[in-house]
Amino acid sequence: MQQRQQNDTHWGRIDRRAVLKGIGAMGAIGALGTGLTGSAMATNGDNEIVVIGNIAFIPNSEEATVSKVDLDAQTAIARYSTLTGDEAGAASPSAWRVSRIDLDSEGNAWVPNSGTGAGGGDLQSSLVRIAREGGEPGVTTSDDHDTILDFDDEVRTQSWVIGGEGDMPRTVTVDENDDIWVGFYGGEYVQKYTYDETDGLQPDGDEIDVSPYTPYDADYQDGTLYLSCRDSSPFDGVAAVLTIDASSGEVTNLEYEPEGDDSNPYSVFVDANGYVWVSAMTNFGNAGQERFLSKFDGDEWLHYDLNDKTDQDLLQFRGIVEYDGLVWVTADNGFAVGFDPEDEEVDQVVSIADGDETPPIGLAVDPEDRVWSILRSDGLDNGSLGQVIGDDAGARIGVGERPYAYGDFTIQVEVRDPSGCTPGFWKQPAYRNEVWTDDDTYGPSDLVSEVFELAVDEGGRGRNTVDFTEMTLYEALGGGGGPGVPGAQQILLRAATAGLLNIQHEDVNYPKTAPQLIAEVNAALATEDREEILALAHELDGLNNEGCSINAFGESK
Q: Could you tell me the pTM of the whole model?
């Protein structure tokens, strides 16, 4: 296996965190409680666990990048190129068509450069791993969605050549052992790979021949790989729905044949009961047509024309997910359709994208049971991730150009054995011993007004007047307090600055992310309510006193 790049760096102590993949995991997170502010904790043996947030990785098909999104702060926080220098020189980003993704148990993303875009049919493709952690933010790894580091400078990305020229890897699925299964649309086969940090990516076993069928989308459950195979887009192929036994490699054709003309299987999804669901790409772009959502119950296919069950004239279907007892599918003209498998009727039709935002592509349920859809937004310069169901339904998170993916693109991040160092630690020994310097993302000379949105610009009187607009992070650590909102703001800025410094040190297991903390501080300050501001300051002070896990020289204890 030829590896394009493997950086000789650690991966940010990734073993200290636990990750839950976002597949509608209401039951999976039940033991952890709720709340992403770090205040909800549970125990696992002798380990204290704190849920710190939910993130998503979104491939941007037109620009060969992947956006990292903080779902709780509702902002994109990083963006990674998937192309090595040689690949960038071989074809335009759109020719590589980065449009599939899956996440392993540690929250690392796996993305194929498929070569299925216009002009990409004969390219030598690759598989990219994007590590969830590692590197120095802003220096060796992206910490800004608007700035993309070159592939060779980004420590979180690795790339390996897979398949042959024109084989076009179009599906990627990670199983329960973190083995990676890739389906090759052009090559008409499936290959299993293993990964470890010593040997990198290696093929495991022989290619599994699925000819004449062309893998397009995949799902994995309980030792079986499920494949939908399309007959076009944009290269010729042969349609089918297949299963592959992961142990034996045996291939079974499920004989998918819905009613109607030109009904291609599109997305494939296996629900909690083991039933296989397939959306149909039928009569592309034409109104007034049959639109099938199909179910295989283990014995036979049941085909449901959803246009016969709703007043909406739905266009072709794409992504599928299960949520709250319904099977949801996106329709190209901006709808998410909730189908009740018990009474075999459409239960809900939700408008999720308007005009230039269409079409919606994949659906996912994050571990906090919010439903998200990737909005490709063909009429806009950049697409977005939209919340379909949740407290902020309708919210948009901007990502890159023509985002595109199905399946599991959300995860939940936890910290085990949380720790935190006090403002005094960061102001005295850490600063004096250059553990904390202006080379850091949040440096001593940075202004608090450039990090946080202040409630007031000034406080105090006479010689005790404080100009918050000129206050540095170093000065914030020595802040006292005082009456009114200005005094409360000073107290909060002291605790919040220490929190940021805890977050940016890799050996401190602080139970928040930087975007999350900043958003919480800004929200508290925006209230201009002293009690609200002090309540958050009190919470952060408690986290900063969890116990410092590093010594005065920044070394892990």
A: 0.79
Residues 248 and 223: their CA atoms lie apart, in Å, by: 10
Q: Is 369 left (phi over 0), alpha (psi -120 to 50) or beta?
A: left
Domain chopping of the chain, boundaries: 423-544
Calpha distance 61→57 (Å, rounded): 13
pLDDT by residue (tens digit) across 216-232? 999 999 999 999 999 87
Strands 109-113 and 208-209: unpaired
> What's the rounded Cα separation, in Å, for the pair 285 and 265?
16
H/E segment holding residue 328:
strand 326-331
Torsion of CA 214, 219, 221, 226, to 10 degrees: -20
pLDDT tens for 71-122 read 998 999 999 999 999 999 999 999 999 999 999 988 999 999 999 998 898 9
List all residues 6 or more positions away from 434 whose beta carbon is below 8 Å from its beta carbon: none
Measured between its terminal Cα atoms, the distance across the chain in Å is 39
Q: Grade residue 12 by pLDDT with cuts at 50, 70 and 90.
A: very low
Tokens of 137: 């933010």
Residues 6 or more apart whose Cβ sits within 8 Å of residue 382: 398, 399, 400, 401
